[in-house]
Amino acid sequence: MHPSSCDTFVALPPSTEGHHIIFGKNSDRPCDEVQEVVYFPAKDYYNPDEKLECTYIEIEQVAHTHAVVLSRPAWLWGAEMGANEHQVCIGNEAVWGRESANEEEALLGMDLVRLGLERANTAEKAVGVITELLERYGQGGTCMEDESSFTYHNSFLISDRKEAWVLETSGKHWAAERVQGGYRNISNQYGITTKIDKEHPGMREYAQSKGWWDGKTEFNFATVYSYLTTARIGSAGSRYCEGKKLLEKSDGHITAEAMMDILRDKESGINMEGMFMTTGSMVSVIPTDPTLPGIHYFTATPDPERSVFKPFIFVQKVNLLKETTSPSFGPDDPVKKNPRFQSKPDRKHPLFVKHELIAAIIESYKERGQKITEGMRRLEKALMEEMETYLERGVEEPDLLVNLFPGSVQKEMSVYNKS
């Protein structure tokens, strides 16, 4: 396999409708990998020596973590994308450049996504959390559930109620750019050029010591840290351009539906098929008005064209998301044993099992498949219409929403059962 994934998008006023910030991501991963959607409540830690076990390494825990909802490959601790109770959204991308990606086990980019969400209540603070951890612990380790040594550096798109940040890394070095209006998308290539709002203090000196920059010409992060040749990122460049065109097409009128349409677009390659495919998708609607809730839609299933985007709203006492939570194997998990990845357990959650069967029917029986897809779209439309009420009036009875996402999953499974 030659990986070429993912795509992450954000649109801010005046590109959007209704004073909303719209965030979206397709997570493109190995086609046999299960992606789960899970919720973790806020938590306080009173032991100053508390340790946190991430995918491969332990780090120091903090005194308080925020509530998070995550879409993640079921075998690891971190996440491909997610949001927290303060309406911070983060997605990451694999990027490759002049610096070799580290095969030694450290923090995965997906670990940094979750850590940023758990520890920061604004997008700018998430940049600080991620870069501080990156400089302290580094990034590295295989990013697939096997011994392939598939490693990469990471870029991140981070948003909150007022702005977004693009953060791009190479080893422990990094650059960040603030986005305060319009739209932005990232794919598997460096995209920060000369507008750099924050950076690693030694980033330029390091590039100069390597002979990548002469110290005189204007510093361009993408030019300096990218590959000398663009062969490896050719497909990422194509998807980036197509994604930008699709955002431009809806400029001024970007909505959750428009973002979902972009994530479902197969002609552009954004909705990926093949050995690497779109295994999970997310769209978030974040009002700039702090009295209104953010709505976070997740598929928890592959191929958004054949999936339902289901809503999640942060309220107290959210019920467990059982139907999208994969089995836990604890210390017996092959990921936790050394040597790692000696076997691969069945990580399919209940919704994934149902969806897998339905996807096969859609593929094999055209008329029947069309009816199933129409039923899924009707459900999604009804769910989104219901969410409009909360976006306009706020949440008056939060207890009614503790089962919002699991209830939506049950409705989706009911559509499948009728089929």
UniProtKB/TrEMBL annotation:
GO terms for biological process: proteolysis. Residues 325-346 are annotated as: Disordered. Coiled coil: none annotated. GO terms for molecular function: cysteine-type exopeptidase activity; dipeptidase activity. InterPro entries: Peptidase_C69. It comes from the Eukaryota. Belongs to the peptidase C69 family. Secernin subfamily. This is Secernin 3. It comes from Nothobranchius furzeri.
